[in-house]
């Protein structure tokens, strides 16, 4: 085998590291995309009985978004293993306790029926903010594009951009709001 062919083969069988920014993303819609990389569905050598998936690093899981009233209505089940140990926790409460758990449960639930589900989940690394350890950031070779564009917040606009924005009405200097 030539050296070029050998390098192609190494790249095919190597476990790559992918970065995903979860800011303003819906974990229920992103889990099929994340699962594709965790199981290795994007590789030409994929087979259901072969574990050829990659590592996925998810950052900013504290800033995920649910549509509508999903934060109040969605509940997550947990059982302690003891009699009467079943509990249902609302999404907002679970997110306050552990900001990484909703994304972890969404990806785990989407991989239903996978024989290697527990092994594959060990390659999922979730961080609540952008403080990812340096030794993990050194391994990252690819960035997964988010499904939705991240909107620009009001405090990120400069004063020049605010002044250039077209205004419907200019209030006089001595204008007071009545209460």
Descriptive notes:
By secondary structure, the protein is of the alpha/beta class. The protein has one domain (14-147): Ribosomal protein L13 (Ribosomal Protein L13p, Chain: A). The protein has eight helices and six strands. Helix 2 (27-39) packs across helix 5. The mean pLDDT is 91.
Supply the helix-strand structural class: alpha/beta
Major sheet summary line: 4 strands, parallel
**SSE ordering:** HEHEHEEHHHEHEH
End-to-end CA span: 81 Å
The named CATH superfamily: Ribosomal protein L13
Query: What's the CATH topology name?
Result: Ribosomal Protein L13p, Chain: A
- What is the correct CATH architecture? Alpha-Beta Complex
The overall pLDDT average reads: 91
The CATH C-level class name: Alpha Beta
Shape verdict:
flat
Strand order of the largest sheet: 5-2-1-6
H/I helix tally: 8
Strand content: 5-15%
Radius of gyration: 22 Å
Tally of strands: 6
Helix content: 25-40%
As for the number of domains, it is: 1
Taking pLDDT < 50 over at least 5 consecutive residues as the criterion, the unreliable ranges are none
GO molecular function: mRNA binding; structural constituent of ribosome
GO biological process, one term: translation
Keywords: Ribonucleoprotein, Ribosomal protein
InterPro entries: Ribosomal_uL13, Ribosomal_uL13_bac-type, Ribosomal_uL13_sf
């Amino acid at each position: 085998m030539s050296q070029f062919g050998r390098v192609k083969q190494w790249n095919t069988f190597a476990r790559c590291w992918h970065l995903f920014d979860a800011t303003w993303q819906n974990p229920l819609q992103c889990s099929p995309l994340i699962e594709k990389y965790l199981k290795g569905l994007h590789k030409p050598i994929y087979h259901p009985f072969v574990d050829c998936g990659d590592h996925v690093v998810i950052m900013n899981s504290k800033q995920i978004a649910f549509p509508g009233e999903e934060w109040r209505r969605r509940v997550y089940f947990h059982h302690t293993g003891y009699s009467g140990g079943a509990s249902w926790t609302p999404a907002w409460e679970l997110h306050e306790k552990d900001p990484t758990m909703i994304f972890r449960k969404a990806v785990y639930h989407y991989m239903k029926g996978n024989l290697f589900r527990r092994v594959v989940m060990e390659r999922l690394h979730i961080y609540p903010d952008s403080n990812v350890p340096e030794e993990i950031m050194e391994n990252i070779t690819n960035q997964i594009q988010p499904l939705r564009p991240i909107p620009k917040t009001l405090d990120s606009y400069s004063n020049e951009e605010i002044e250039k924005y077209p205004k419907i009405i200019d209030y006089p200097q001595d204008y007071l709001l009545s209460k």
